[in-house]
Amino acid sequence: MNAIYLDNNATTACDPEVVSAMLPFFTEQYGNPSSMHQFGSRVGGAIAEARREVQALLGAAHDSEIVFTSCATESNNTAILSALKVQEGRREIITSAVEHPAILSLCKHLAEHEGYTLHVLPVDGRGRIDLGYYENLLSEQTALVSITWANNETGTLFPVLKMAEMAKGVGALFHTDAVQAAGKAPINLKDSAIDMLSISGHKLHAPKGIGALYLRRGMRYRPMLRGGHQERGRRAGTENVTGIVGLGIAAKLAREHMQAEWTTVKRLRDRLEAGILLQTPYAFVTGDTENRLPNTANIAFEYIEGEAILLHLNHAGIAASSGSACTSGSLEPSHVMRAMGIPYTAAHGTVRFSLSRYTTEAEIDRAIAAVPQIIAKLRKLSPYWGETGPAQKAFQPEYA
Amino acid sequence: MWDYTEKVKDHFFNPRNAGELKEANAVGEIGSISCGDALRLQLKVDPNNDIILDARFQTFGCGSAIASSSALTEMIKGKTLDEALQVSNQDIADFLDGLPPEKMHCSVMGREALQAAIANYRGETFHDDHEEGELVCKCFAIDSKLIEDVVRANQLTTVEQVTHYTKAGGACATCHEKIENLITKVLAKVEAAPAPEAPAFVVRPQPSGKLARLKKIEAVIETIRPMLQNDHGDIELVDVDDMHIFVKLLGGCVGCQMEKMTLAGIEQKLRIELGEPIQLVPVSDWG
To answer: Which of A307, A314, A384 to mutate to test the interface with B (most CBs of B within 10 A)?
Structure first.
């Protein structure tokens, strides 16, 4: 039986249409777009078209607001470092406790080593930000606010449009990491106060190694990579032509399939959650279930550990991911689960199932059949678990 | 994805001695909830001769935690308590044909549960003094706790010194920024971390002749040999030219998961000692 891929928030398969559009640019149209001959000019046209597709996906006012990068991490670093560079008088950064490490580690580094003040917005048990708290942190000192559009672990959506308006009120720049949202949530930048936005190709069926950064026209900006005129001097380096072409097609397809995300994919996600929870006691969905991406289900299975679940799932041909400490080699469970105050015995047992437009009903039904058995099997091994529920005599080991 | 050995997978998917042991007369309960592992080890000990008649485990933890628990119960059954206490966490890892460096703490937990169970049987109290930090050096499995302790105790100020004291940072060198940050933190310096170390190989006077150079290489290898022998391996110097040092790894080193790391560590040490950017070339069968 084929493996079932339910880890689309980690990465996605390239759409076959994306691959076939890319192929000629490896072998026939291999020119450097900067070159003054026919090999170059044809490639230049393909890049321009891809840029317009990304512009359309993001609802940007101008195609020149899109800068191609190597990945979302590069986009995020570029955006944050630029925002600080162009506003040297402002020394404060605001972000949230549930950002991707690409944002959080950089912000922490800037606070620890570069003397910036970092404000990390806490979230409630459902992963939601308190806008009143945010408002109090905003000041004339705020250089940058960076808030993710949608959380990668739970799919929780954040009120970035409102938060961008509020940042604008104090003259701060607003950046959003929209890696998980792009292609799943409607984005219309031209009617927003968002200044910068990052996306990644491989999360929306384009290849790895291509990303983009939206830079609002007229905003002051400093590049991270200097050295050439590419991307109008905003990101030097020979263009990743095949990647850019792939991202362009992927952006077009994402727009065409946007409705499917909120109908077909969402229905399958809901079916998966209901199917698992119906047969599994002591399990719950994490994040803001009222307000989240249609493809993501993050389920906490209490009293067992996530890596062990993933190994069994993998054995059963199902690919998912976990917020447990052990899957990353760190000593702490996911910072997202901790920020939401999920207890350790549940945080270690969180499993994220993330679907795509390729996920089928048969696959979901196979997952629904497999997961509850795996959970039961591991609970039998757990000292926290009794016969049918948590152990009667509480297990209280001596903690290291 | 972790590169678990077949033995680890086997003990994870088919755990031995899992579940409760109703007639247990020794229980050890150890856990680190933040790192997501907890273990209850139950033993049935023959009061006449201290022999472990049966052992069972219940584990909340990852694949290697469950496999380590299963392996531990297999290893100690039939042993006396004193014999069982000789089982080290390295023995548990060896029994499983090795664990990834990030996962060695899983075997430590097994060893501690055993100590706790035996203390419980003997009416003693077990005090766990084991603490862990973030894994910093993945080549030699050194965590931040150890590095901080050593830096504090010896007032170390450079990455090179930390490497000499702990081995941390001595092979692939990718953790040097983290080590610098730990030094800065411990010494509570206000200024930024010290500038990165100069290239590791400091130029020193060349040995006068070929023979002297060869002797020097041999001397370096002799200092490394005991470390390899501890892990049931060995190394043989095969040939030397101006740029390359050809060596053969023997015994336990052959095909070991850490082979590349070991070679990188030896190469680094030879570069420092010789003051030349030599390349270490492993040969399997010379000639």
So the answer is: A307
